[in-house]
């Protein structure tokens, strides 16, 4: 009886006091919305209201468009998300400018600077890479703080959650041009250790993969662990694979991303092997 009461209480809390997100499909095609292991299919001009305490949704359109969208809403806030033509996502409601900045502008800002990092890197000016990348992050977080408009500033809980998401995506943009080779050169090692020691090391025990960028950053660190001579927490392997030497340094939720990426790849090329990874995700990761 007590268990039923708690389940009912949780249901009421998430549906009455939870976030309210309205999703509208204004594009020509069908879109799939995935959140908390649930699936919504929206045809053109259809809309759906979802309530709860969720951190993200994933929008899929065909086999060529997949985007995970983070949300930083309080439990009493509402947001309208419109999926328009050209896969553009428009926001209206609580903290709409903040979400628009993070979802529509963050990627071009961070990844648009990669070529500048590379120029300095190939000139053997590692300090300039550090300085420029830190300036990009600082300017971006200052804009986030202004859009969040909290009297608590950087001590605001919403800001802290956003910063965690932002930093991993920023790190991922930097790691793009220093990974790829089997062996790191001295410059790549110096950069890896700089960002690891300043942005990852202190939180490595509680690292959780909620987005692709989180997985990409941690798996890159794990891949070069021996060359960097760093210690990482070890975890049980949920499912054996050809990358156990990397996955054993990833929490279970991060290991899931390895198989999710495999599934997405084989699904994209319409290879029957996608079913293998689909079953693994369902049976081993409840995905």
Short description:
The protein is an alpha+beta fold. It contains 11 helices and 8 strands. Helix content is 51%, strand content 16%.
For this entry, give a set of tags.
DUF4369 domain-containing protein, four-stranded mixed beta sheet, globular, alpha+beta, 287 residues, four-stranded antiparallel beta sheet
Indicate the percent of residues in helices.
Answer: 40-55%
**Rg calculated over all Cα atoms:** 20 Å
Distance between the termini: 29 Å
Taken from the alpha-carbon principal axes, the silhouette is globular
Unreliably modeled segments: 4-15
Number of continuous helical runs: 11
Largest sheet: 4 strands, mixed
- Beta-strand segment tally: 8
- Strand percentage, roughly? 15-25%
The structural class is alpha+beta
* Mean pLDDT over the residues: 91
Strand order of the largest sheet: 4-1-7-8
- Give helix and strand order, one letter per element, not per position: HEEEEEEEEHHHHHHHHHH
Protein name: DUF4369 domain-containing protein
Describe this structure in words.
- This protein has 287 residues and is α+β, with helices and mostly antiparallel strands.
- Helix content is 51%, strand content 16%.
- It contains eleven helices and eight strands.
- The strands form two sheets. Strands 4-1-7-8 form a four-stranded mixed β-sheet.
- Helix 10 runs antiparallel to helix 11.
- The longest helix is centred in the middle third of the chain and has 23 residues.
- It starts with a helix and ends with a helix.
- 26% of the residues are buried.
């Amino acid at each position: 009886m007590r268990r039923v009461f708690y389940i009912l209480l949780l249901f009421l809390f998430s549906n009455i006091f939870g976030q309210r997100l309205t999703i509208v499909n204004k594009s020509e095609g069908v879109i799939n919305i995935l959140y908390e292991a649930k699936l919504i299919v929206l045809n053109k001009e259809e809309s759906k209201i979802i309530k709860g305490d969720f951190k993200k949704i994933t929008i899929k359109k065909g086999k060529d468009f997949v985007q995970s969208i983070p949300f930083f809403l309080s439990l009493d806030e509402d947001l309208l998300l419109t999926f328009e033509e050209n896969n553009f996502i428009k926001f209206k409601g609580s903290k709409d400018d903040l979400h628009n900045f993070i979802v529509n502008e963050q990627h071009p800002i961070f990844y648009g600077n990669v070529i500048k990092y590379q120029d300095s890197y190939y000139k053997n000016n590692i300090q300039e890479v550090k300085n420029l990348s830190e300036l990009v992050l600082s300017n971006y977080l200052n804009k986030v703080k202004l859009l969040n408009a909290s009297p608590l500033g950087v001590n605001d809980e919403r800001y802290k959650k956003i910063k965690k998401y932002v930093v991993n995506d920023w790190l991922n943009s930097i790691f793009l041009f220093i990974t790829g080779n089997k062996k790191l050169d001295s410059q790549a090692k110096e950069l890896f250790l700089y960002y690891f020691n300043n942005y990852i090391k202190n939180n490595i025990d509680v690292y959780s993969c909620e987005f692709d960028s989180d997985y990409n950053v941690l798996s890159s660190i794990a891949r070069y662990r021996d060359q960097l001579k760093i210690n990482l927490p070890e975890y049980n392997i949920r499912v054996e694979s050809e990358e156990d030497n990397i996955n054993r340094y990833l929490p279970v939720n991060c290991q899931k991303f390895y198989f999710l990426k495999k599934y997405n790849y084989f699904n994209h090329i319409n290879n029957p092997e996608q079913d293998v990874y689909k079953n693994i995700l369902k049976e081993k990761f409840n995905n």
